[in-house]
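Notes from hallway chat w/ T.B., transcribed later so I don't forget. T.B. wanted the structure written out for a chain they're using in a teaching module, and asked if we could keep both sequence and structure tokens in one place. Agreed to drop them here.
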Amino acid sequence: MNGTEADRTEKRVYVDKRSPGAYKALTATAEAVRAVAQEAGLPRTLVELVNLRVSQINGCAYCLDVHTRAALRAGETAQRLGVLAAWRDTEVFTAQERAALALAEATTHPADAALQEAAYATARLTLSDDETAAVIWVAVTINAFNRVSVMSKHPVRAVPRQ
């Protein structure tokens, strides 16, 4: 492989920059989903917990960085963010948050039908129709953003310590 071919295979294409119209549509979807979540009465902290949990599952460093900062701005605590990956093993999340997190995980792992059905059934006991729909839309949307960032290898830059 010559230098040009090596450069081409090693250099990542930022798909959001390369296809700005598609990315703009995805961003518009995210804005619509935020409105749906707000109309359903979901707290912003819960939306960010869903964004973070899905991003943890997908290994999206960029989205984890963005949504950790958003969660903190929304009033989320460092303790809850720190234990989010093990949310089932803690007592720090409400029934609503637990139902939403399970539903978000099931949305992220659609091939696991048993997990999906169990999470959906649990969510229906705790979440309203509007809340259920909003959580699924939040999970679907962050999954799409995760794919864009993971495949583009969007960088996470260090923030100076204060």
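Follow-up for T.B.: The chain has a mean pLDDT of 94. Might be a good example for the class.
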